[in-house]
Structures are given as C-alpha cells and as structure tokens.
Amino acid sequence: MSDLGALIPRNREIHPDPYDPGYKTSVTRSPNLPLLSMESTPSEETGPRFGHGLIGPLDNNLILNFTRGESPAVGERILVHGRVLDENARPVPNTLVEIWQANAGGRYRHKKDNYLAPLDPNFGGCGRTLTDERGTYQFLTIRPGAYPWPNRGNDWRPMHIHFSIFGHSFGQRLISQMYFEGDPLIARCPIVKTIKDHGQIDRLVAPLDMSAARPLDFLAYKFDIVLRGRRQTMFENKLEGM
Ligand SMILES: [Fe+2]
C-alpha cells in the first residue's frame, strides 16, 4: 500500500481559531497575519520511520515503566486503546504514538510544575508504542488528575492525556489531547472551548469501553484518531488501479 502522495488540505472550518482571548496565551502565540495555503511537497509528504527495535516491552505501560516493573504507580488503573486511521478511513500501521500525562493527583513530573499535589515516585507520565497492521494501539496507565492552571483566576484542566502521532509524513503529524467521558470540567475548560463545534469536541472525548475492561483489574477507554489522508482515488477502500 502506498502511503506517499499529496495530502488532503486541512479543513480550517473544523479547526479552532488560533486566537481565542479565553485561552490567554493564545493571544501572543497566534499569528497576526492570515495563513497562506501552499501545495504539499516531499518535505511534508515524507517523514521518519520508527522500527520495533525502538520500543521496549514496558514502553506502553505507564503503571510500571518508570520503575522498570519494580513498583506500580498510584491511581485508578485504566486501559486506553483505539485505532489510528486516515481521512480515507484506512488504518495507519506502524506509526509512533506517544502520550504524556499528569499523575493521579494532577501533577506532572516537570521542573516547572509546582502544584500542591505530590509527585508519585513510581510514575513518570510518558509512554510510546507503534500501531499494528490494523492501526490499533493501547496503553495501560492510571487516570490522570485534573489540575488548576493560571489563566483567568480559577481555571482547571479536565482529566486529559496528551497524544502525539507521527503518521507516515510530517504533514500528517498530529498533537492533541484526549478527555474522559462524563468529566464535568470538559465543558468549563477554556482550551476545549476554543473548539466551537460540539461534534468536534466529542471526538476528543473517549467513551468508557467496558468491552475492553478487565474484571478486578482496569477500566478501559476507547480513543480513535484520524490523521490527514492522501489525495488518491479510492475504490472500495483500496487505491484505484492496485
Ligand atoms: Fe496537560
């Protein structure tokens, strides 16, 4: 299967406006001039490949990977799993998925995070994996805590996990966040509110998935991810002419 070729242009209608005064730092981070659209070139249509030799056996287990299996992290044990697809609904196999998150108390292992919640000596907060041939991935982790952040007085981030997905080219790279079904802080979050379409917000909220939960062990949440696709003619989900 070819995974090279021109990329489908982004639909700016469904992306949040980079400038949103409710999210204070977006004011200085957002561009001052209108964006220009350009045709993609090989520098966007290609990207790095990651071999299975890169990934260690505990890399997708955040409960154990910080202590190399010695001692589990504190928190509610969860499985996060899903598929990485492109805009043509084709699986994106063998692509690097990385996550990072706060611990169960809402604190990151980062020198600039000085929130009151303590660090967990058994939790690092980072993981990575490769999708399989069907584009599926999974992580075992703990549910991250909500945390306050300096924005407008008393703003809190909902429970969330940060995701980075490489795709097969730099133009497919996606960095986003996953939220948890039922969290009342989602609707109050100034960062979430930069997305004006509720349907698009829903796509960032992972539903509880009891079919993948393990009794007496962990709950599960399902999070499917769609990357940019290629401008190729599809016929019954196969490239035409192949
Ligand atoms: Fe965060």
TrEMBL record:
Gene3D superfamilies in alphabetical order: Aromatic compound dioxygenase
PANTHER family: DIOXYGENASE, PUTATIVE (AFU_ORTHOLOGUE AFUA_2G02910)-RELATED (PTHR33711), INTRADIOL RING-CLEAVAGE DIOXYGENASES DOMAIN-CONTAINING PROTEIN (PTHR33711:SF10)
Family: Belongs to the intradiol ring-cleavage dioxygenase family.
Keywords for the protein's UniProt record, in alphabetical order: Dioxygenase, Oxidoreductase
Transmembrane region(s): none
Region feature (Disordered): 1-52
Protein name in UniProt: Protocatechuate 3,4-dioxygenase subunit beta
EC code: 1.13.11.3
InterPro entries: Intradiol_dOase_C, Intradiol_dOase_core, Intradiol_RC_Dioxygenase, PCDO_beta_N, Protocat_dOase_b
Intradiol ring-cleavage dioxygenases domain location: 46-229
Pfam family, one: Dioxygenase_C
Domain of life from the UniProt record: Bacteria
Gene Ontology molecular-function annotations: protocatechuate 3,4-dioxygenase activity
Signal peptide span: none
Keyword Transmembrane assigned: no
Residue ranges of domain Protocatechuate 3,4-dioxygenase beta subunit N-terminal in the record: 9-41
Top-level EC class as recorded in UniProt: oxidoreductase
